[in-house]
Structures are given as C-alpha cells and as structure tokens.
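Incident review: delayed structure delivery

Summary: a single-chain prediction request sat in the queue longer than the usual turnaround. Root cause was a stuck worker, restarted by the on-call engineer. No data loss occurred. The affected request and its eventual output are reproduced below so the record is complete for anyone auditing the incident later.

Affected input:
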Amino acid sequence: MALLKADDEQLWPALDRTLTDGRMGINGSGVRCATRLTRTGRSYRQTFAMLREFGGLAAAGGNGTDLRISALEELDQLIRPERGCAARETRAWRQARTGLGDHLFADLLRAGTPFWEWTMVCLRAPNNAPDFSAYTDHDRNGGRVYRADYVVGDQLIAEGVLIPESHGGTIVEWDETLRLPRVVSQELHVQHTAHFYFDPGTSEVALLLSGRRYADEPTPCLDIIAQYRRSMAASYCACRLVMGALPMGVPSPGGPAIAAC
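Output delivered after worker restart:
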C-alpha cells in the first residue's frame, strides 16, 4: 500500500501492470496501472487535487494529461473468467475465483485493513432527481432494478442503465460493457466472485471497490459499493493509479478542473 502523507512525503507505486480491454466486441489498447493502491484518506475530488499538488504526475512518469485513477478496468480480471459459467459448473467457477488471487486485489482483500478504492465511475439519478426512487423497473426474473445515468469522470456515458436492487447480494451476471452487475442473487452458496451494494436514496453514488471475508464463505470476495457520494472522505479511501486512455473515449481529467459532486 502506497501512502500520500500530509507532510508532502510520498511513496508512489510503480505502474507495473498492463491491462487490456477485455470487454466483448471492444478491441481497446492496454493501459498501465499500479498493482498496489495509493491511500489518500480524501474524497474523490480531493484525491485528484492531491495527485496534482504532490507532483504525482511527474513522479509516476505521466505528462499531466494521461495519469488518472481506475475506471473499473481491473474488474475484467473477474468478468472474463466468469463469462459462460453456469451456476453448477463448479470447475469453471473455481477457475473464475482464482482471479481474486491476482495481485491487483491484494490490498483490497488481503491487506488486513479495510480500504475503499475510488474509481472514476459514478451513478446519478436521471433528470437531476433527488434520488432513484422514481426510476424503478423489473428485470427478466422479476427483481427490482433502478434506472441510473452512468458517468465516468464528469462525462455522461449512458442514460437509463439498469442497476439491480442489492444490499450485499452476490453478482451472478455482469454488464460487460459498463463493468456493472446485471443480476444479483440473495441465495446462499451461489457461485460468485463479488457482492454488490447500492443505495437508491441519494442523487448520486460513486462506484468504490473494497473486499471482505463473509462468515459463510471460505475466501474473501470483492465488494462493489455504490452507496456514497463522491464528497465522502474517510481514512481508508484509496485509489489505483492508471496511465492511458479512458474507456469509451472519455476525456482525461488531467486538464479541466473536476466538478464538485
């Protein structure tokens, strides 16, 4: 775990990993990222301010426009192996769960201290609504879903994306394009690699990554947390440094100031 300290002393993790775009139908170029997280203890916007203030762009070899934080790229390490896994295919799911052993997830799952990783993704209630309650629907299995606008940085990417109602449910199907959960389950012992938490009671929720070991599960799982605004700050907030183009042609935040949310 790399640390950003208030006394201007910093340790910057190496951009030691290349991730290629693993989504179906998309042939994107790879990006460089840090295997280790950088703990900031700051809000989303403050995290970007720290990167600029402490000279992280130069320290990490960036040019001021291409260094950013994750836009959920690391989730491909879980989503790709899960593709086509049926609930009863134990061997296939065992292989999918090996993705959790990737060093990318070591700080989230095996550091011994809880960390919440900021990403550039957030969900906003449509039409500037105060919450998501007026935008409900049902999926093909009858489960409640909410409609949300999908934002990367400050760029609106998709409107009316279906988000399943979930308070820790296991993710059994993914939207591979947006790297979001499509179907969750409340059943015990269903095969999975991640849990999803979503709070529809506010106008905006950031997408954070975390992890924990659940009482009825033998190994830790990843948590996809969509419960807090980007203005939230806590000592365990962290980020993953990434160098490379954003997915779907989203402008880099290295130039214009990031709007407060």
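Verification: The first helix runs from residue 44 to 53.
Action items: add queue-age alerting; document worker restart procedure.
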